[in-house]
Write a structure and sequence with these properties.
This protein is an alpha/beta fold. It has two domains: 110 residues, Immunoglobulins (Immunoglobulin-like); 240 residues, 3-Layer(aba) Sandwich (Rossmann fold), CATH 3.40.50.1820. Helices cover 30% and strands 25% of the residues. It contains eleven helices and 18 strands. The strands form three sheets. An eight-stranded mixed β-sheet has the order 11-12-14-13-15-16-17-18, with helices on both faces. Strand 16, helix 9 and strand 17 form a beta-alpha-beta unit. The radius of gyration is 23 Å and the shape is elongated. The protein starts with a helix and ends with a helix.
């Protein structure tokens, strides 16, 4: 218990604090008023810089957000966001942009999947969970098996050495389609794809499907997923072969386009590339925030396929966050496919480039491409 004298000193100190600091101490940061969001920092100059989904996470100096000094040792930045947005952010040192600085007013953090924790916040109307990720009581569960990708047939197609694949067999006996999921460990751990699929199958919102959750190569991911023919051979040949050894699959030779590929970011690029390049095998595609053009002046070859290749009959889902740097490339891809007359689903969500948003989109995407 605080002694009376200490309590009086604390109250006296509080009266000298800026109102924004008092709010931040009581409410946490950022401060949210309708669609207005205010980031607040308390400390001497120089204040840290702000990066996040809304600045494309760029720490090159051009995209760093400088906080404005509004009082002695009080710094703020105010921005408007959709009322249903979920966003992540971080502070970085003013001099060393690779050095993260924790926000003392926000204890909510989430791993960014690469090298650090991000702070996050929900706008007033943003969903906080994915109902499908929590299986209803009594839901039948599929079987998950983790296998190494090894052997001469596979190793020559891998960049960066051996990794693993998780195979998900749905709780049915008949042959099923296979959905290959790139960055498989991330979708397994961070996107809750297995319980979501269990729930959707049990509620008959999608047909039973199998999953091959393929790990990426941490050192060679850019090479593997940048519209790679080698990766296409791996997916269309060896991954399907390995999956078929453990799970009864529908044969794409008798049912063209029955299988699918899903991925996010560069994985989303590779997923669409696989569908456009080999639609006879991969007729079902889910692309979250596809990195179709990392450098605007040098778009990937997937644009050429979308413009000039024979138009395939894909079951296609594309989505992208309104607050990420890949939005323009995704809108360009949407325009190209619409100009070709392709029937597909495109969705923009109120969020950024992160697995929380992709997990939110996953049930709708799966229903679009494998709905009953």
């Amino acid at each position: 218990m605080t002694a009376p004298f200490d309590f009086l000193k604390e109250c006296d100190a509080m009266t000298h604090l800026h109102p924004l600091i008092i709010r931040a101490q009581h409410e946490g940061c950022p401060l949210i008023d309708g669609d207005q969001v205010t980031f607040v920092w308390h400390g001497p100059a120089p204040a840290p810089r702000l990066i996040g989904d809304f600045s494309d996470w760029a720490d090159d100096g051009q995209h760093l957000i400088e906080l404005e000094q509004v009082s002695d040792q009080v710094w703020t930045h105010t921005q408007t966001f959709d009322r249903d947005a979920y966003l992540e952010y971080a502070y970085v040192d003013a001099h060393d942009h690779e050095q993260r600085v924790a926000d003392p007013f926000n204890a909510r953090t989430i791993w960014n999947g690469v090298n650090a924790d991000n702070h996050f916040f929900h706008m007033p109307n943003a969903p906080h969970e994915v109902p499908e990720a929590r299986r209803p009581r009594g839901t039948a569960r599929g079987k998950v098996t983790r296998l190494p990708l090894a052997g001469q047939q596979v190793s020559w197609l891998l960049v960066g050495g051996q990794r693993y694949v998780r195979l998900y067999q749905p709780p049915v006996a008949e042959p099923v389609p296979l959905l290959i999921v790139l960055d498989g460990s991330d979708f397994y751990k961070r996107a809750s794809i297995v319980p979501i699929v269990d729930t959707l199958i049990a509620s008959k919102r999608i047909r039973p499907i199998a999953l091959a959750l393929v790990d990426n190569s941490p050192a060679g991911r850019f090479i593997e997923y940048s519209a790679s023919e080698s990766t296409l051979l791996l997916l269309g040949g060896e991954i399907i072969r390995i999956a078929a050894e453990h799970i009864p699959l529908i044969d794409a030779r008798s049912t063209p386009g029955v299988h699918g590929v899903a991925g996010a970011s560069l994985g989303g690029l590779m997923a669409l590339y696989a569908g456009l390049r080999v639609p006879s095998i991969f007729g079902h595609v889910i692309s979250h925030s596809g990195a179709f053009s990392v450098i605007p002046e040098q778009p990937f070859v997937v644009f050429d396929l979308a413009k000039y290749a024979p138009l395939p009959a894909l079951k296609l889902w594309l989505d992208c966050g309104k607050y990420e740097g890949l939005l323009q490339a995704n809108r360009q891809m949407k325009a190209v496919l619409q100009a070709r007359g392709m029937n597909f689903t495109y969705h923009e969500y109120s969020g950024g480039h992160n697995y929380t948003c992709w997990r939110m989109m996953l049930p709708r995407a799966l229903e679009t491409v494998y709905g009953t």
